Amino acid sequence: MLGIGITELFLVLVPWLLLVGGFIVLLVAVWRLMRAHEALVAVLKEIAGNLKKGPDDSR
User: Fold this and answer.
1) H or E segment to which residue 51 belongs
2) How many CA atoms lie within 13 A of 26 on its CB side?
3) Buried b (16+ CB within 10 A) or exposed e, 15-41
4) Helices (H) and strands (E) in the chain — how many of each?
5) Could you give the CA distance from residue 28 to residue 20 in angstroms, rounded to a whole number?
């Protein structure tokens, strides 16, 4: 036998690639959620600032 065969390599490589790919997808999802969170906080702060000013008397 000449060491590791193609079947053994396949059985080790595929789960490892799936784990690495899943980890990268998870990191991207968390990064996108953090960016969306920043935008949502900015919008809510703007709305709160407008509410503090009271009714618009520029009419």
Assistant:
1) helix 6-53
2) 6
3) eeeeeeeeeeeeeeeeeeeeeeeeeee
4) 1, 0
5) 12
Model pLDDT for residues 4-56, shown as the tens digit of each residue: 788 888 888 999 999 999 999 999 999 999 989 888 999 999 999 988 886 66
Give dist(CA 59, CA 50) in Å, integer: 16
In terms of Cα–Cα distance, which of 15, 12, 17 is closest to 3? 12
Q: How far is Cα 3 from Cα 9, in angstroms, rounded to an integer? A: 10
The two three-digit tokens of residue 14, written as one number = 């595929």
Rounded (5°) CA angle 35-25-32: 5
